[in-house]
Amino acid sequence: MTINDIKNLLNATVVSGHQLLDTEVHNACGSDMMSDVLAFVKDQSVLLTGLVNSQVVRTAEMMDMVCIIFVRGKEPSEEIINLAADRGIVLMKTSLRMFPACGILYQAGLRG
Amino acid sequence: MKLHYEVPGDDFTRAGDASGDVKRRLKRLGFPPDVIRRAAIAIYEGEINMVIHAGGGTADIEIMPDRITAVLSDNGPGIPDVEKAMQEGWSTAPDNIRALGFGAGMGLPNIRKYSDSLNIDTAVGKGTTLTITVLANPAQQ
Ligand SMILES: Nc1ncnc2c1ncn2[C@@H]1O[C@H](COP(=O)(O)OP(=O)(O)OP(=O)(O)O)[C@@H](O)[C@H]1O
Ligand SMILES: [Mg+2]
């Protein structure tokens, strides 16, 4: 699926990186602990998290992830948005909570 | 190529500046993606540890065709029990650090996992120096 498909599935709002929505993604990871995310390299390209700070973007950068989804409607700051834009990472937010958001994406074929 | 970074202890948002810069340089130099990722994650975890546990420090990186070596040095409290600290899930991070997404006790185990060698030199009350090596072509070594 593409990042745009994720946007539709989660009824998400794109915060930044609109030009990258056609990027294909196959694997995702959901966590609020960044070292847990860093522990399993499996070519994940999407990170779902309830945590909102610049280290989320740094973690995605180290993992070569292309898309971050903030769950529970969390709002990233200007600083986070600028960092993500500089690193070529799409930022989205959804009002869904972590569990349903992951479930919907898993059912649609995204793997962990 | 030798690189030196100051890792400020008072600005959590800047943790990742050094590892991010190293990562971009390795990319430009044409290192294999998995080597770049292993080196970047290992240095990033070390950088974060210096910021959240030791009040900052320095990162000295040497990039050679066959290996990347990172020396991460701080003057923080040191690690009293390295064997414990190396265990997955063991952390002394307080709640305010956990709220920032760190303190899972996975950083040092991750560094060991992604590096080809890790040496920890630490003394309580003096500080900690991590020496991390990632080989650029581990299969052939
Ligand atoms: N540079 C350091 N100075 C002092 N203590 C450290 C340092 N690095 C690690 N430690 C100690 O070792 C413990 C384990 O470190 P590790 O990186 O594995 O986990 P963490 O930082 O607590 O959590 P995580 O890395 O998952 O966010 C830390 O909780 C801390 O007590
Ligand atoms: Mg750590």
Primary descriptors:
heterodimer, A: 112 residues, alpha/beta, 5 strands, globular, B: alpha+beta, Heat Shock Protein 90, 5 helices, binds magnesium ion
Q: In the CATH hierarchy, what is the superfamily of chain B?
A: Histidine kinase-like ATPase, C-terminal domain
Quaternary state of the chains? heterodimer
Give the mean pLDDT of chain B: 96
Structural class of chain B: alpha+beta
Strand segment count of chain A: 5
Q: Note the beta-strand portion of chain A.
A: 15-25%
Name the CATH architecture of chain A: 3-Layer(aba) Sandwich
Kindly, what is the distance between the CA atoms of the first and last residues of chain B, rounded to a whole number of angstroms? 21 Å
Residue share in helix of chain A: 25-40%
Q: Which architecture of chain B would the CATH scheme give at its second level? A: 2-Layer Sandwich
Radius of gyration of chain A: 12 Å
Terminal CA distance of chain A: 14 Å
Radius of gyration of chain B from CA coordinates: 14 Å
Number of helices of chain A: 5
User: Which stretches of chain A of 5+ consecutive residues score pLDDT under 50?
Assistant: none
Sketch the topology of chain A as an H/E string, one letter per element. HEEHEHEHEH
Any overview of this molecule?
The complex is a heterodimer of chains A (112) and B (141). Chain A is of the alpha/beta class. Chain A has helices at 3-9, 34-39, 54-62, 78-87, 98-107; strands at residues 13-16, 28-30, 46-49, 67-70, 90-93. Chain A has a single domain (3-107), classed as HprK N-terminal domain-like (Udp-n-acetylmuramoylalanyl-d-glutamate--2,6- Diaminopimelate Ligase, Chain: A, domain 1), CATH 3.40.1390.20. Chain A is 38% helix and 17% strand. Chain A has a five-stranded mixed beta sheet, with helices on both faces. The longest helix of chain A is centred in the C-terminal third of the chain and has 10 residues, at 78-87. In chain A, 48% of the residues are buried. The mean pLDDT of chain A is 96. Chain B has 141 residues and is an alpha+beta fold. Helix content of chain B is 36%, strand content 28%. Chain B has five helices and five strands. In chain B, α1 (17-29) packs antiparallel against α2 and α2 (33-54) runs antiparallel to α5. The longest helix of chain B is centred in the first third of the chain and has 22 residues, at 33-54. Chain B is globular. The two termini of chain B are 21 Å apart. The model of chain B has no long low-confidence stretch (mean pLDDT 96). Chain A binds chain B through residues 32-36, 38-39, 41, 49, 51, 53-56, 58-59, 61-64, 79, 87, and chain B through 12-13, 15-16, 19-20, 23, 33-34, 37, 40-41, 44-45, 48, 98, 100-107, 109-110, 113-114. The structure holds adenosine-5'-triphosphate (ATP) and magnesium ion.
